[in-house]
Design brief:
It is built from four helices and no strands. The protein is mainly alpha-helical.
């Protein structure tokens, strides 16, 4: 099933911080091709990524210029 492969591909991308893939999973959930559990796991994976990349240097850069926002 094509939607299943889309879900798998986007789940992998979400773990790498791709917010567009998180949006795609939300759409798949809305269309009924992903479960609530799939969407919850994607949100948790994205949040885990954000926690992992958080650093004081990134925060300083983001405060300096919105171009450097990472969340």
């Amino acid at each position: 099933m094509v939607e299943e492969w889309k879900l798998i591909r986007n789940m992998i991308a979400v773990r790498s911080g791709h917010d567009g893939s998180l949006e795609k999973i939300r759409q798949l959930y809305g269309y009924g091709f992903a479960t609530k559990d799939d969407y919850t796991k994607a949100l948790q994976a994205y949040q885990s990524y954000l926690v992992e990349i958080k650093s004081s240097q990134r925060d300083e850069a983001a405060a300096y210029d919105d171009h450097y926002l990472y969340y």
